[in-house]
């Protein structure tokens, strides 16, 4: 029986200096006029440093692929994968869902890995357009499927809480590769299954 192919996926080692981050957070909040002497705010710089370190550090995971022994050639789609990231322009969160699908080639992917890939690329300061493309390109390169489709729907707090303050607005981005981009019927099926009108 063929064994699954495993590959550990992780970010290049980068050192997180929580002490320096806490010091910088303290200076930042003080510069904005936030008094930190209150009991409720005294530990805020430490909590803030740890929170951002968590937001910017993806967990390593094993990319598990299996031979496509049955020759499955229909769409594999994970819908509404929860997503959270941080806008690189304002360092404010954006949250939403990703719909990630592919048309298998010689290998298929362990289903939980679609969510892991979304999480992996979300854990860094990002823009939604790049995030959408990174997920699709990574799947195309590492899985070599016949087609890949990624749609992200997200609400950006840099737009809903500040600036224009357009509460409830969502941004939708998509990247289609291979057959899902080139074949109109495959593209329509993908968008129909994600619930996005094409």
Automatic annotation (TrEMBL):
Every GTP cyclohydrolase I domain range: 22-193
Catalysis performed (reactions): GTP + H2O = 7,8-dihydroneopterin 3'-triphosphate + formate + H(+)
UniProt cross-references to InterPro entries, sorted A to Z: GTP-CH-I_C/QueF, GTP-CH-I_N, GTP_CycHdrlase_I, GTP_CycHdrlase_I_CS, GTP_CycHdrlase_I_dom
Pfam families, A to Z: GTP_cyclohydroI (PF01227)
Top-level lineage group: Bacteria
EC annotation from Swiss-Prot or TrEMBL: 3.5.4.16
Residues involved in Zn(2+) binding: 87, 90, 158
Pathway: Cofactor biosynthesis; 7,8-dihydroneopterin triphosphate biosynthesis; 7,8-dihydroneopterin triphosphate from GTP: step 1/1
Keyword list, A-Z: GTP-binding, Hydrolase, Metal-binding, Nucleotide-binding, One-carbon metabolism, Zinc
Subunit: Homopolymer.
Family classification: Belongs to the GTP cyclohydrolase I family.
Protein's name in the database: GTP cyclohydrolase 1
UniProt source species: Nocardia sputorum
């Amino acid at each position: 029986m063929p064994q699954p192919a495993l590959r550990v996926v992780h970010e290049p080692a980068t050192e997180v200096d929580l002490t320096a981050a806490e010091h910088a957070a303290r200076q930042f909040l003080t510069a904005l006029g936030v008094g930190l002497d209150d009991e409720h705010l005294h530990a805020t710089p430490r909590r803030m440093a740890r929170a951002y370190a968590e937001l910017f550090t993806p967990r390593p995971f094993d990319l598990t692929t299996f031979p496509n022994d049955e020759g499955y050639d229909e769409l594999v789609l994970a819908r509404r994968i929860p997503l959270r990231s941080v806008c690189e322009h304002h360092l404010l969160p954006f949250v939403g869902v990703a719909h990630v699908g592919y048309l298998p080639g010689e290998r298929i992917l362990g289903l939980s890995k679609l969510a892991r890939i979304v999480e992996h690329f979300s854990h860094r300061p990002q823009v939604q357009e790049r995030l959408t493309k990174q997920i699709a390109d990574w799947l195309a390169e590492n899985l070599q499927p016949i087609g890949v489709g990624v749609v992200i729907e997200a609400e950006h707090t840099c737009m809903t809480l500040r600036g224009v303050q357009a509460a409830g607005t969502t941004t939708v981005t998509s990247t289609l590769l291979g057959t899902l981009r080139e074949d109109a019927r495959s593209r329509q099926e993908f968008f129909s299954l994600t619930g996005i009108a094409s």
